[in-house]
Amino acid sequence: MQELIRVVILAIVQGIAEFLPISSSGHLVILGSMLGELGESVTLEIILHAGTLGSILVVFWQRIWALLLKDRRVIGLLVIGTLPAVVIGLTIKTQFPEILRSPLLAGAMLIVTGAMLIVLGRLNPKSGTYDRLGFGAAFLVGCFQAFAILPGISRSGSTILGGRLMGLDRDDSVTFSFLLAIPAILGATVLAIKDLIEDGSSGDTSIGILLIGATVAFAVGIVALKWLIRWSREDRLHWFAYWCIPAGLLVVILNLR
Questions:
Q1: 240 to each of 58, 72, 105, 246, how far by Cα in Å?
Q2: Distance from C-alpha of 67 to C-alpha of 111, rounded to nearest angstrom
Q3: How far, in Å, CA of 193 to CA of 201, rounded?
Q4: CB 232 within 8 A of CB 161
Q5: Whole-angstrom Cα distance, residue 254 to residue 257?
Q6: Distances (CA, A) of 93 to 10, 78, 220
Q7: Distance between CA 245 and CA 197 in Å, rounded?
Q8: Rounded distance, CA 129 to CA 210, Å?
Q9: Which of 52, 146, 196, 226 is 20 to 30 A (C-alpha) from 179?
Q10: Helical spans, DSSP H, in the chain
Q11: Global pTM?
């Protein structure tokens, strides 16, 4: 029962923080350091990401269907935009895996996320649409996504900022951000499933509890994603800086002590 409660807590945090610009990876690392080995399970983290991937597919299914039928050029943009995260992500995972589990780094990067959100709030509105985005611009937005591999850097906040800097309007910067998340999260999920099959186990967490966690992350994620879309239209995303910066400072201070 204690294990189930911990997984549900992590799933709720994942569902909220994956979409709101406050960094799910940072919060999971920080919370994981408090919950022990269960919170540090990479497999659990990726399974929870799979749950939030389902949230994206539900909320954006019409856009995704349009990509498959008529906006196929955007698929190329997503491929180009995913490359930086693949290269940098695999490099960090294989060469410097310890930094992905550092609460101190997560706290410091939460402060950086807060600063990015403040910048986002000061940008003038643009009118560009993601289907007219250039391949170079898509690659640069992908670099913002690659930066978010560091725990504490919000993937949604970083890529929305990148899209706005490339001239996208508020709605399309959000849409492109989460379309870009699909191949990244799907790839990580496939690798996690491959590891589960090869290892024949999920560590100390049962498959049933993992599925419960994914379901909770999925349901909470839908609510959080709709919240983000609404606040983006109202130009309120920079308000989340008032959470990220104080939380990051607190985590850094506690870890240095």
A1: 25, 34, 19, 11
A2: 36
A3: 10
A4: no
A5: 5
A6: 22, 22, 28
A7: 40
A8: 38
A9: 196
A10: 2-17, 24-35, 42-59, 61-69, 72-95, 103-122, 135-147, 155-165, 170-199, 207-233, 241-256
A11: 0.90
Which residues, 6+ apart, have CB-to-CB distance to 169 below 8 Å? 125, 126, 127, 128, 129
Measured between alpha carbons, how far is residue 86 from residues 13, 54, 110, 255 in Å? 25, 21, 22, 30
8-state DSSP, 40:
G
* Tokens representing residue 144 in the block: 């913002």
DSSP string, 113-161: HHHHHHHHHHSPP--B-GGG--HHHHHHHHHHHHHTTSTTS-HHHHHHH
Cα–Cα distance between 117 and 121 in angstroms, integer? 6
Task: Decide: helix, strand or coil at residue 248.
Answer: helix
DSSP, res 168: B
Residue 62 carries which side chain, given as an amino acid letter? Q
Q: Which of 18, 21, 28 is nearest to 239 (CA)?
A: 21
pLDDT 10s per residue in the chain (257 long)?
Answer: 778 888 898 899 989 998 999 998 899 888 878 776 544 566 777 788 889 999 999 999 998 898 888 888 899 999 999 999 989 887 887 788 888 889 999 999 999 999 999 999 999 988 999 999 999 999 999 999 999 999 999 999 999 999 999 999 999 999 999 999 998 888 777 766 666 666 655 555 677 888 899 999 999 999 999 999 999 999 999 999 999 999 999 999 999 98
